[in-house]
Please model this.
Amino acid sequence: MKSKTVFICQSCGTRSPKWLGRCPGCGEWNSLVEEVDEERGPAAEPSFAPAEPQLYADIKEAASPRLELDCPEFNKVLGGGAVLGSLILIGGEPGIGKSTLLLQASRDFAAGGRSVLYVSGEESLEQIKIRGDRLGVGDGALYLLAETNLERIIAQAEKLRPGVFVLDSVQTVYSAKLSSSPGTVSQVREVANQVFRFAKTNQVPAFLIGHITKEGSLAGPKSLEHIVDVVLLFEGERDHSHRILRALKNRFGPVSELAIYEMGAAGLEAVPNPSAFFLKERPVGEPGSVVTATLKGSRPLLAEIQALVSTTLFAGNPRRMTIGLDHYRASMLLAVVEKKLGFGFGGEDIYLNVAGGVAIDEPAADLAAVLAVVSSLKNRPLPARTAVFGEVGLSGEVRSVGQPLARIKEAASLGFERVVLPRGNLAALGKDETPGPEILAVRDVREAYKCLF
Ligand code: TYD
Ligand code: MG
Model:
């Protein structure tokens, strides 16, 4: 039985019985999305008791019960475990390891005595089992279901009543209530809505896997962000072994935490000390390499910025390449180096890279990028065991950044003996008498240059 559907413009709400390329109401292109027609189906929704307004002071704080995962890093990203009855979306590019991550989590839940229903619309049970064998899935109440019809999936889930529900992936499953094909905005929303209802009524955490493209723009997960309780992003470069899991949205916790995993032969392994992981192959005493203390979420992370300045073969049009840093920001920094430190790059190609495939998106790495370029240009390494952070402005001034203490501590914990930082951050450090690394506070790039070269 097919219920009635209607196409609704997502920008002005105009309704149409059939799909149209352009909305007759507002003129927007491609804005009509198929939805189950709720208005004409009065008995479709279960009726809840009407809510009454309550005095703020009378409302009790609900301690939302959480289900802890075996992996402390995953727990932290979720804000202390998965809240019962919450819907958690894990988005990432195809092949990044989403199925692996959730099969591992399912393995641990089952081993801990909690039943899990892992539904796959992508792979056969045999394929999942091959992955499961690599991951060491043992005995326990882990149920697999290969199915793409949403209504049948929910019916099975209602019958089994698992303690944890996983759906892989939201794009491959379809609701028979809609005529649109799987993966369309209408379908992924309907899927999310039904799983959401299942999670709430049964008070189980439900994990949804969603594929997103490099541009992050695919119809699917983006349009789900407001439906689900938690959005996690699983990202990384496919040719690097590490993966980053972080929260984009969390109704039950902060979004500042992140976890780093390494993909190995036996699945994903959490990296307890990310800074050491990213610095482990750093060439020591080489020109052009500078360690910076950046923040990933609320967590400080040491990363190596590398610069290579070499005579260009393209006279008049030298190359400027950046990987892991913002290209426009890097161009601005090069201009500052030319103007304020008096170096000329007209005949040089310049490559800037963050080693290990980390992407840095905060200006606190500016000073390290500047010093890396200068170090490569002069062919002189920075003094050993030195870490650097600070934002650089157009006048060459080094501006203060957030959480200087956390950055210094991270550097100290990995054996750095000297930290170059913005003068403006000195006040925030206070009068800490414990012996730490030597602090070199600088006002501008020229001062930093004089201190280090
Ligand atoms: P997968 O979890 O299937 O990615 P997604 O669900 O996000 O599409 O796994 C992606 C890759 O991980 C796959 O190319 C193989 C690799 N992999 C390992 O290197 N080791 C392992 O133990 C497993 C299970 C996968
Ligand atoms: Mg998968």
Remarks:
- The longest strand covers residues 299-311.
